[in-house]
Amino acid sequence: MEFLNRYDTCMLREKISSIQKPLLNWYKKNARDLPWRHTRDPYKIWVSEIMLQQTQVATVIPYYERWVKRFPTLNALAKAPLDEVMKYWAGLGYYRRVKMLHQAAQQIFKGLNGIIPNTPEELLKIKGIGRYTAGAILSIAFQKKAPLVDGNVIRILTRIFAIKSNVASLQTLKKLWVLADMLVPENNPGDFNQAMMELGATICLPQNPSCLICPVLKICSAAKLGTPEKFPAKKKATPLEKIESTALILRDAKGQVLIQKQPLAERWGGLWMFPFAKTTTDLEKQFCISLKGQKPRLSFKHGFTKYSVTLKVYDASFQGPGLRSARAHWIRPASLSQYAFPSPHQKIAKSLLKHEI
Fold it and tell me: Which position among 14, 49, 244, 284 bears the catalytic label?
């Protein structure tokens, strides 16, 4: 690895030791009190890691606590219907994660007697478990030496070793995994991996890192250069494409509102949503209504993948014959809280509930 060529074996061992000891000592004194840090249960650690992917810790905590209360074991999750599982996830986003988690729990329940494997080879056969999640489960739950590389770890390693190559490159990522593996100690591998994540989340921030109080400041090459924010090197982000979407609060003569369950193959599959389309014209044609001249009841932005979406929400009355099927329900607004909605449609439901109250 070209970014390690400048170190001979002794220098590299010394540098690794200079990272491990102070980082572990710092973690013992400064680790945040998070609910999943009070267990070695591989199932609960697995759930926390899946929830934390692309989601802030503060957001995850209440979801995690509700989840483990309702699904305290892998077997409880495996036996639960997907509709209920989705309800406990609704609002966390990236719904493919929870579907795979549910399928994986069933896979382990049926094929492995409900016992989560403790080897990387077997863990990587489980649906939805990649190298990072496997490393977290192995090191934290089973105390086995296993690396993990996420955005926080990438940032720390590129700064400590002044790695200038593009981290979007597969070749660079492979080298970072090798380096991460070298760094994980035989003793306390779980604490070390959590210390790396904790350092990236609280000290070694993307912008304005708190270098002066960093436990590995003395051996950080980027800090010595005075340019920590230049690491890691990345390609320029592609601007989000702006699009518009329309949703409808459609009421029948009884004051009930229409919600529709999305097919599992779609983005928000398994969740309930208010009728939606790209334009008001599409909704007008679908429900034989007119929205001309109306101002939206709500308008807000949300995002996913490469899009920034402006969602406009309209009120309308439905005069046609009854619409009801397994995927279309007319319900009282007061019952909305019993259904699982994705975040944008949760906002519509909350606005409607607030108005009704």
Answer: 49
Quick: pLDDT tens for 126-154: 999 999 999 999 999 999 999 999 999 99
CB < 8 Å & 24+ apart, contacts of 291-298 = 291/316, 297/249, 297/351, 298/347, 298/348, 298/351
Q: Could you give the C-alpha distances from 20 to 13, 224, 225, 273, in angstroms and in order?
A: 10, 19, 22, 48
- Known active-site residue 49: yes
- Residue 329 in any domain: the answer is yes
Taking the model in full, what pTM does it have?
Answer: 0.81
> Residue 225: which of 174, 160, 275 has the closest Cα?
160
Distance (Å, whole) CA 204 – CA 40: 26
Q: Tell me the DSSP string of 109-133.
A: HHHSTTPPP-SHHHHTTSTT--HHH
For the chain, what is the domain count? 1
Torsion sign across C-alpha atoms 96, 99, 101, 107 = negative
Residue 316: how many other CB atoms lie within 10 Å: 20
Whether 204 is covered by a domain: the verdict is: no
Residue for token digits 């340019």?
227
Could you tell me the CATH number of the domain that includes residue 316?
Answer: 3.90.79.10
